[in-house]
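in:
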């Protein structure tokens, strides 16, 4: 796909990403916004996105993000980044009515919702896809920083298995533009406020292990969120911390979003495909990081998720027994 060719005659271009935008989503939207503004100065380029966390405020274009989703508006080209159209929230109406819809994403659960789809599940972040698609001559320090932020957030600072030699080569090129990357990593990825750390502590303390310690779950209810005066953005990172526990193959973190309704985040290692589990319940994501929204009591939700996780363990155990058996015969 050639982004500039696709936008050649466009006068109005819109860009959006998923609800509860994370680093990759914010980075990709603002990187594309900067690129299009630079290369197509006569076009109007707008970003509609739920208000991102304050930690992303240094990214160029942050102040231009429109989180009010005003009345319907028609765009010549509309980009859905890091998700399919069903997760665009208030921006879905702009995407659906656009003359040309373009979907760029790296989620394995996304089948493509645009007139043009660039979906690459093997690539670590949507920002890495944006890097691949742009003319590198146009890179500058601000554009490089936006792309880099998405890469670090979705690869866990180049730790997860979605980091490839190419990812690191691209990151090396990006830091050559001279932005303060150690501070960016520290302030947007690792640093937590005191309250965020307290609620994480509480979630870890109250976590429950099951399936012989291979799974772990923790939940934060509305009352506790109100007590600490936190919102969903303050709960980022809890599920990763649960996944770090020795012996855990699958971690589940849930928080209450309404009456008998929970947002579910899952993390796993190579033993469980959490994207499959989340997709079954109407969500999606990646093999090792996925999410969904579920209805019911906390116990109903955990029981339903467990059935699917246990099913995957059982299949693997059977495969292992068969392999061991055939080994003995040889
Ligand atoms: P997180 O647990 O950090 O919210 O999300 C993990 C991954 O799963 C992210 O890539 C995120 O975009 C995706 N994800 C989380 N919740 C949902 C959901 O409800 N639907 C879909 N399709 N993807 C989700
Ligand atoms: Mn992403």
């Amino acid at each position: 796909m050639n982004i500039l060719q696709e936008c050649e005659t466009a006068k109005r271009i819109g860009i959006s990403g998923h609800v509860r935008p994370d680093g990759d989503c914010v980075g990709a939207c603002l990187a594309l916004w900067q690129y299009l503004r630079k290369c197509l100065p006569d076009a109007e380029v707008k970003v509609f996105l739920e208000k991102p966390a304050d930690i992303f405020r240094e990214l160029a274009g942050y102040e231009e993000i429109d989180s009010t989703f005003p009345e319907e508006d028609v765009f010549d080209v509309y980009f859905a980044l890091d998700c399919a159209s069903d997760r665009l929230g208030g921006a879905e109406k702009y995407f659906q009515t656009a003359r040309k819809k373009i979907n760029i994403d790296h989620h394995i659960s996304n089948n493509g919702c645009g007139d043009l789809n660039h979906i690459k599940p093997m690539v670590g972040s949507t920002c890495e896809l944006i890097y691949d698609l742009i003319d590198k001559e146009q890179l500058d320090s601000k554009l490089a920083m936006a792309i880099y932020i998405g890469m670090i957030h979705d690869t866990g600072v180049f730790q997860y298995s979605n980091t490839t030699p190419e990812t690191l080569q691209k990151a090396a090129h990006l830091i050559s533009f001279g932005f303060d990357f150690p501070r960016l990593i520290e302030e947007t990825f690792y640093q937590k406020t005191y309250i965020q750390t307290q609620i994480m502590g509480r979630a870890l303390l109250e976590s429950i292990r099951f399936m012989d310690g291979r799974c772990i779950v923790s939940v934060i209810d509305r009352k506790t969120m109100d007590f600490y005066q936190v919102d969903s953005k303050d709960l980022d990172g809890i599920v990763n911390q649960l996944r770090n526990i020795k012996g855990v193959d699958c971690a589940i973190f849930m928080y209450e979003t309404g009456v008998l309704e929970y947002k579910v985040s899952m993390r796993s290692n190579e033993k469980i495909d959490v994207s499959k589990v989340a997709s079954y319940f109407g969500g999606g994501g990646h093999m090792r990081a996925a999410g969904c929204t579920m209805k019911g009591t906390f116990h109903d939700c955990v029981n339903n998720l467990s059935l699917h996780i246990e099913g995957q363990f059982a299949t693997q155990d059977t495969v292992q027994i068969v392999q061991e058996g055939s080994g003995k015969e040889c």
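note: The pocket of guanosine-5'-monophosphate (ligand 1) is lined by residues 18, 87, 107, 109, 239, 265, 283-286, 289-293 (CB under 6 Å).
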